[in-house]
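Before we proceed, please read the two lines closing this message. Let me know whether the structure tokens fit the sequence:

…
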Amino acid sequence: MRFLHASWSRLIVPTGLIGLALGISPIQAADPSKRDSSDLADVDLAKVLAGGKVVFVSSGSRPIGFQAIDDERRTTFQFSNSDPRPTLIVELEKIRPVHRVSVVPGSQSLKVDVYLLTKRPRNVSNLDKIEPLTSIVDLVVGREAAVDFAPQRARYVVLRWTLATKLPGPLKIAEVSAFTKPDSAQVADALAATEPPINVALGPPVLTPVSP
């Protein structure tokens, strides 16, 4: 009986391994390059670290315009108190599809008109003659307000504010953002670098006969 007990114990362990091998989910073995890029976080192209630059402000101190894209809400850019139509243009590093724009107001305003362009406008006042792509409303000081739309290729993000009739002070902007989805090639490379492929068992383990 002691001989039979030892034999069965040797067979039970490999049998458990067979169950584990056959129970591996095929999802774990999926090709990382085929992952949907929508599962990853959006990329903010407007930020300084992403290559974004403030190339135009209608008023205020030009040298510190980058404070609107420094990814730090505690810093703000301030337009002139006499500016009736505050306007800011962010130049992206290159033309990319943008599907979301957001702002974090540093003071009160009514709305922000959004224009996405492939070329920098020569005269921003001409933008009043065309319809903006969309507008951001329901602005609350210190809170991000965003608008989503179908992806549109752009190199320049133009924002034009409509002010209330009575303001306690000049318009202040804490942050401006323009979002895109990660490139599929970049997604594949990132996943390949961080998630090495899983080796899937091709069959049950080979049981080596043991002499009594």
